[in-house]
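Q: Joint fold for the lines below.
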Amino acid sequence: MVDEVEGRLTHNLTHFARALRVAGLPVGPARVVDAVRAVMAAGFSGQDDFRHVLAACFISRPEERAVFEQVFRLFWRDPRYLEHMMSMLFPSIRGVQDDRAPMPAEKRAAQALLNGAEMPAPEFPPSTKDEEVQIEIDASATMSHEERLKTLDFEQMSAEEVAEARRVLARMSLPVKPLVTRRMGAGAGPRIDAARTLRGALRQGGEITHLALKSPKERWPNLVVLCDISGSMSQYSRLALHFVHAVANRRGQGWAKVHAFTFGTRLTNITRHLRTRDVDAALAAAGTEAQDWSGGTRIGACLRDFNRDWSRRVLGQGAVVLLITDGLDRDDAGALGLETERLGLSCRRLIWLNPLLRWEGFAPKASGIRAMLPHVHAFRAGHSITSLETLARVISDPRDGGEKSRLMRLLGDNVAKTC
Amino acid sequence: MAVQAIATIDGVEAMLAGQGYVSSRALSTVVFLALKLGRPLFLEGEAGVGKTEIAKAVAAALGRRLIRLQCYEGLDAGSAVAEWNFAAQMIAIRAAEAGSGLSGGHAIGKAGLFTEEFLIERPLLAAMRPQPGGAPVLLIDELDRADEPFEAFLLEALSDFQVTIPELGTIKAPEPPIVILTSNRTREVHDALKRRCLYHWVDYPAFERELEILRARVPEAPAQLSAEVVGFIQRLRGEDLFKRPGVAETIDWARCLLALDVIALSPDVIADTLGAILKYQDDIQRLSGHEASRMLDEVRKGLAL
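A: Joint structure:
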């Protein structure tokens, strides 16, 4: 009798787990076994308790609670109804599955959002081997062409040049120096490793002939990218995201974790989408997630959202923040200044990439730029491949302020003039 | 009280209530499962919602020893499991040398130097030892503060309830400890660790339950004041704040008000004691002036209904 109950329960829970898996929860067979044991242990004392029991077994992060509640409600009402719904719901919840090829219509919609009408057919990055061959050919035959491409402003590029720039960006990296942690490991000093010294001594009959040393271990910092995708930034942010994707997916890239957010009128977390290895699929998925491409900008409000909801979760371990925006904001500059200050204080380094800096005569006149500039640690241009390469060179240097000091002087002059 | 005595979810709820911990049905369920199935319990939630308190309540109710491992950046195996007493070992070598005339290592031998005698026990190892009154409650607090490599180290301890010390071998707990892990979510804890645990997100309590908690924790507060305090805090949590006040702040605030001999809330009192519930200057500024008195009026209206 008990066996029969358990068998039916296992059967039902397996189906339920399958439903959860389709809905995007990472539920493996081990969890089903746990759930069966848990339900048998708790008994069937009521539907609420049953739900709590399953929740304890199947959920492992707060975001999953809503999905779980929905699936639970649908499933235990009528499993067949759910199967039917699942087949219909499939496209809308597929964002959580990164490996599936995008549906044609969806890809088109995302591309329309991402790339505009004149976008050429998406090219897939060739495998590394082919790429290397290609670089050589490029270098020998079209040296001047490549150089021109590198210094060309993203916004002035033709569709062809954009495609080429992407190929270059896909190969770029953002190398960073590791951070020293407080954990120790075997090394060349400066502290004495007593346990190892003694073990070594015992092997030699108790005579301490040399001291084993230990030194602090190293780890990589996290990178957090906040990318402005408003109308004034559209071309830059697209290419900047290509760059970010390349950095995030490079093998042995140095960064422990790369978190990416886009903002225009609202803040969107696109970290999950960037993990897709194919850059077009990744950005297409990010495009469907972020609803505010090429709209207006509310930098202050979006930074406020980030500070409140995310900063404590992603900036904890000495993260470096890359803020990609032109700083043109119509909202209250005072609030923007405060939020930038908080952002700058919560991370290890805040680097602002501003494409407007491409002009020689750029002066911090817009109120948003004036409010943000004093609180960032470094201020750099981000309008061409060369500028991104420069960033890669100096990102490890904690003293590098980019153009900040020059612009702060300008800012001082302006204030002096108006006073 | 033994674990076996708690046969139902209601039993767990009553047991926690006996310790002044008012728990939700969902939380009672996971605690019941953790006790019954012998699985670690992973609690996540905002600061000050009673994650650490649950471990204390369980330990006190079952009469078990509470062993706490507070995580911090740089925590390593040495400070979590056990360390060798290097100085004592050196002295032992020298003493053996002086006594026998042999060189130290030969006199004392390897087996004599790496024994329990020279071992300094740390929380994880202590939790694997039999304790008077039964297996202890092991509280691994604020796991998100420890470095990620440390999590991998916990896997063995949490799935097999054993720790390995290279020189001594594996030490297995005769009776698995009751393990409770907490995290404030300043980073994501790895799935491999979560998978071994029962998970529960501890949320802010609803009005009635928070009032019950306050009554259990600060019984000397007048009913009217308690209701106003809870109403005001509940209202505050709906605001757009950088850090919303937790239950711990509610209790703190009620105690502050009692110490000031306040019988009912007023805008002035709120302004003076706001530091007990809001810990960020921006949040305090938002509530200065008329905002607090407007909210208090709303709370009063709500309570009168």
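Q: Anything notable?
A: The two ends of chain B are 43 Å apart (CA to CA). The longest strand of chain B covers residues 178-183.
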